[in-house]
Amino acid sequence: MSIDLKKRFDRIVEILIQLQSKRIVKAQDLADRFEVSLRTIYRDMKSLEQAGVPIIGEAGTGYSIMNGYNLPPVSFNKEEALSFVATEKLAEKFFDNSTSRHYGFAMMKIKAILKSHDQEMLEHMQGQIIMKKQDNPIFSNHAPQLLNATLTSIAQKRQLRILYQGIKDDQAHDRTIEPLGVLHEIGYWYIIAYCLVRKDYRQFRSDRVMEVNLLESDFSKEHLSMEEYIALNPPTTYERSKVRIKVSKEMAPHVRWQRNHYGYISEEKKDDHFIMQFDCRDIEHEFPRWLLMFADHIEVLEPAILKSRMMEIIQDINLKFR
């Protein structure tokens, strides 16, 4: 079989799997996924129809497969099977207890159809991949089922009642919310939801939810999609500043540990030190306070305003602790 023919065969098989797993599949989405033209996707669909697959094409909507049509038993290659182990480990770390448990049950069903030697391989690999828990838990001990409840709320369009303590709150407050979706960022899940108290869209960080209850009441109205929400709420932009610092050889490994969070650009090795460049977003507070951890091992080369700001902070500290 030629390489091109094999590629086409693999693509058609994957299109068939997608049709089986989704209600509607758009031709443009398939073309983007496989990096081919729309004409190629139309030709592949025609091949599936000629092979007896009952495909329904809806103009302007996409393709679907007739209810009741089933694929023959699915098989997995070695690389696909190995990916199960990694995703299971990720689920253990990033999902709540309830969602992780459901995922585990689903994976057991998938593994059951693997060949015996592949099952043995996965069993061996289970102990070879370690995911350490992060120091700060993603979910509060009081709401260990938060992610599962949120996903159910989104799927069934049912309201959630949460007890939420924001970063500036002295105590947790009752909120009734209607989630649009979830976003994972900087080690935490964020629930994007319409808050009935604030009458506006808000983000709720997973570890700050102290209690969660799925209500019987339906959403009060239709909401934005996650795509629309993100388009209307772009990330905050900051005025950037170019920074160059001189770091001692001994301290460089410690600076490297966190530098990517602070706009790191490049590093140049000199005789007994390193010159590091940053594109700094907050030269007034965040960046100088981070640098103060290494102050006795660094030198600010530019800009002068950063050096002045660090001196101000040091003088304030000196007054308080003198």
TrEMBL record:
Q: Which segments constitute the HTH deoR-type domain? A: 8-63
| Statement: the UniProt record of this protein carries the keyword Transcription | yes
- Sorted alphabetically, which Pfam families does this protein's record hold? HTH_11, WCX, WYL
Enumerate the PROSITE patterns for this protein. Answer: HTH_DEOR_2, WYL
Write the record's keywords in alphabetical order, separated by commas.
Transcription, Transcription regulation
Task: Give the InterPro entries listed for this entry.
Answer: CBASS_pafABC_assoc_protein, DeoR_HTH, HTH_11, PafC-like, WCX_dom, WH-like_DNA-bd_sf, WH_DNA-bd_sf, WYL_dom
Q: What is this protein called?
A: YafY family protein
Q: Which organism is it from?
A: Sphingobacterium tenebrionis
